[in-house]
Amino acid sequence: MSNIVLTLGGVTFQDFEVPEKIALGSTQRVAVHELIGGGQVVDALGDAMGKISLAGVFSGADAAARAQILDGATALGAQLPMLWDSFFYTVIIETFRAEYEKPWWIPFWLVCQIVFDPVAAVTDAVSSLTDLIAGDVASAVALAPQAGLSLGLSGAPGATALGAAQGLVAGGIAASDAALTAGGALFNGAADAVSGAAGLTQLVGVSGQLAAVTGLSGYVNRAATNTANELL
């Protein structure tokens, strides 16, 4: 990358000083909800700012001065602009190491924690409510069979369809609550082992259904709220 100029804070690397490679990447945070009876729901929670790592060399009469600048910035936890080619980030140097070989030749390596990514910020800003609604609806539709419901939703449905789905979900929660109460009574009042086993089986099945329909309500209600906001 000898034709690329890399700057970090007030320090500039160019020509052979620029590392041959710069490692970077991001991580999507996910929450996995394990459901009773099997199955799972996975929520994407957003980008977790990644790290940038690189190794290079300071050279020339100001090699030591530049090494000291980055070492001091690391100790201070200063937020620095980092720029090369079409990449731009605000970072904090998490780790900095240098090997003083000669006053004019100091190899180094460092790891930076990204604290701001303008590209990701723009992507988040332009993410429409329609996309959020469609994602919640897709999650609700995937979860509905475990709740024993058919919502009849797809894509980004309107307020009327979502209102109907909310009614179905509310009815499902009420039915599961009633069945859970009945199963508990059957189990607690069992006169023999067979009746007790039947009550326990009902409790297990209904508990899984109630967990699914309760989770389902979160997706449907959020989709309905965002649909209402989109219409404002």
Features:
single chain, Elongation Factor Tu (Ef-tu), domain 3, 2 domains, seven-stranded antiparallel beta sheet
Helicity level, as a percent range? Answer: 40-55%
Strand order of the largest sheet: 2-1-7-8-9-6-3
Contiguous low-pLDDT stretches (5 residues minimum) are: none
Largest sheet: 7 strands, antiparallel
What percent strand?
A: 25-35%
Coarse shape: elongated
Structural class: alpha+beta
CATH architecture of the largest domain: Beta Barrel
H/E topology pattern? EEEEEEHEEEHHHH
| Number of DSSP helical runs | 5
Distance between the termini: 50 Å
Please give a structural write-up:
This protein has 232 residues and is of the alpha+beta class. The protein has 2 domains: 6-123, Elongation Factor Tu (Ef-tu), domain 3, CATH 2.40.30; 128-231, no CATH class. Helices cover 48% and strands 28% of the residues. The protein contains 5 helices and 9 strands; from the N terminus they run ββββββαβββαααα. The strands form 2 sheets. It has a 7-stranded antiparallel sheet with strand order 2-1-7-8-9-6-3. It has a two-stranded antiparallel ribbon with strand order 4-5. β7 (79-84) and β8 (87-98) form a beta hairpin. The longest helix is centred in the last third of the chain and has 39 residues, at 193-231. It is elongated and about 90 Å long. The mean pLDDT is 79.
